[in-house]
Here is the input.
Amino acid sequence: MYLWIKALHVIAIISWMAGLLYLPRLFVYHASAGADALSETFKMMERRLYRYIMTPAMLVAWLTGLYLAVDSGALSSGWFHAKATLVVLLTAAHIHDGALMRRFAEDANIHSPRYYRIVNELPTLLMIGVVILVIVKPF
Here is the structure.
């Protein structure tokens, strides 16, 4: 059963990361579009991505990840604590994306496309750290 849960965990992480990388890119285009008919299309795309892909994937990643950590005994490892910290930061990025999405939904965006390009890089950096910690287990 452990390997099936691990496979589900990896699938959930891939789906969640895809959303964390794509949603800010949609924000870049949305911020450039202004308040026209295209803006309504972006709102729908953002909402569906966040609600139907990103959030369920995040929840599955958390649940399966916690199961795997407990089952494997990783909770007492230093590398796991560092990884968990990065995952909490990824979750904060997810929540921040949700707040940004709600601002767009209310036509209340206050950021430039450049801001969203920068926001788009944070999950990538966090993901690199997570992968290194999980594979290399440096401490």
About this structure: The mean pLDDT is 96. DSSP finds four helices and no strands in the chain. Residues 37-72 form the longest helix (36 residues). Residues 13-56+78-136 form one domain.
